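Quick start: read one record
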Amino acid sequence: MSIILPPTDYRLAENWLEVPQSIDHAIDTLYFYPTCYAPLDPQAPLVCSAADPDMRLYAKRCLAKTAGVFSPSSNIFAPFYRQCNAFAAGALPQREMLALYERYPVVDICAALDYYFQNFNGGRPFILAGHSQGSLMILYALSLYFPRHLDYYRRLVAAYAVGFGVFDDYLADNPHLRLAQGEDDLGVIVSFNTESPRNKGYKNIVLQPGSHSINPLNWRTDDTYAPLSLNKGSLYSNPDGSFSIGPALADAQLDLERGVVLCRSLPEPNPYLSCHIQAFGPASYHSHDYAFYYLNLRDNVSRRVGRYLSLEPHLEEPLSAKA
């Protein structure tokens, strides 16, 4: 594999997907895009350079699709980072797969965090936001990077690690972390994965036994049903490549055994299923985790930011350490 070991050089502006031209908010969001490197050629490298043009193009689209959840409340920063072809890497033995992630994407994420905090952050509180492989990078950062940087960690508003399961073994290995239990708790991990009930029993690459989700409509962690009427609006892709907000698409109810959000409001078959990507199972809504619940997520970010700012003068330790 012809990938160099040193991290991507984040001193170079070209290695940042997004750096705001002006600081307009008291809070930052550091965004990590999902898998944007998925070559069909079986001979393609398992890991791409952060300069890979196809990955960069798709990463820009992913940011455009997600940014509106965070931009009304925060300044968005986003690094380009080396990525694993998650579908090919997933076929490796687990030890080899984890070594691959830790040797390349995780090295870049830690280097990007160093540069961000030393050069961009200016002491502001921050949100971590990601989807899929980007959320995996957040989970690595929370377990490997922030325990060494508690001065940064105590300013964490919340980590939106959407589209990748947060599971019991991970939480047991990282007792300093906790999952969100409501709509405005702070210093927590906000995570969910969306499926049709028909996906139950099938392997989903982003789930492991003991995974957890929070309901993005009622912000509960039990299986109380949240009807479509609670959904304030979903995000739609337009033919010209732009995005627009429209009528709500998805209801939500937790499947506590599988640790996912079930959506039953869409008739099947429907164009939102990710069934063309077999790694997620035949009836996953993985690609639409943010889009289905777009305005509710935007409002939730605003609520957590508002509460953080109201409490900030009194904070002396990471909020995740508080009951």
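The chain has one domain: 13-316.
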